[in-house]
Design brief:
8 helices
Length: about 160
C-alpha cells in the first residue's frame, strides 16, 4: 500500500515485454508478483531520495495477508479487535455476539479494497459505532450482529463505497 504503482517501475526495469531473439533466453518472470523483484533502483525511480535508500539495510517485500490470517487477527490474539469490542459492550452489561458470516464479510471487505489488517478496525467501527452509543442505555442485555445489519451499517458509513461490486 505504501508504494502503490511501483510494480510498473519494476516491470519497466525487468523489460517484461521482451520480443525478438533475446526473448527465449530471458528468465521466467512471475508477472503476478513483481514486488518480489524490487531493488534499490526501483525505489529511487519511484521517488525516494538516495540518502534514505542508502540507510535501508534490507529491501524486500511482504505478501498480502490472506483470509485466514485476517480472520485470525480479528479473533485470536489476546487483544483481538472482536475481543476489544466484546469487552467494551461487557462493561455496559451487554453481551455482544457477532455471527461468523459477519466476520467473513469484514475479512472479504478488507481484502476487496486492499485495506489489510488496519482496515479491519475501520470496518468494525462502521458496523458497531451506532450500537456503541445506542445499546448501553437501552436496557438490552444482548446484541447480535448479523450479516444484513453489518452490510447496512457499512453502506451507511461509507456511502456504499465498500459494499458496491
Amino acid at each position: 500500500g505504501a508504494f502503490e504503482g511501483i510494480e510498473r517501475r519494476i516491470a519497466q526495469r525487468l523489460n517484461t515485454q521482451v520480443i525478438g531473439f533475446g526473448a527465449a533466453n530471458r528468465q521466467q518472470i512471475d508477472k503476478d508478483n513483481l514486488l518480489k523483484y524490487v531493488e534499490a533502483q526501483d525505489l529511487r525511480s519511484y521517488g525516494l531520495i538516495p540518502e534514505i535508500i542508502g540507510r535501508l539495510p534490507v529491501i524486500t517485500y511482504l505478501d498480502n495477508l490472506d483470509r485466514d490470517a485476517l480472520k485470525r487477527i480479528l479473533t485470536e490474539p489476546k487483544n483481538a479487535l472482536l475481543r476489544q469490542y466484546k469487552k467494551m459492550f461487557e462493561m455496559d452489561g451487554v453481551e455482544l455476539v457477532v455471527k461468523n458470516d459477519v466476520l467473513e464479510f469484514i475479512v472479504e471487505t478488507a481484502i476487496q479494497y486492499k485495506l489489510g489488517a488496519r482496515g479491519l478496525r475501520s470496518i468494525c467501527e462502521a458496523i458497531l459505532l451506532d450500537s456503541m452509543y445506542e445499546v448501553p442505555g437501552s436496557g438490552k442485555k444482548k446484541l447480535t450482529i448479523d450479516l444484513k445489519y453489518a452490510k447496512e451499517k457499512v453502506a451507511q458509513f461509507t456511502g456504499n463505497l465498500l459494499t458496491e461490486k
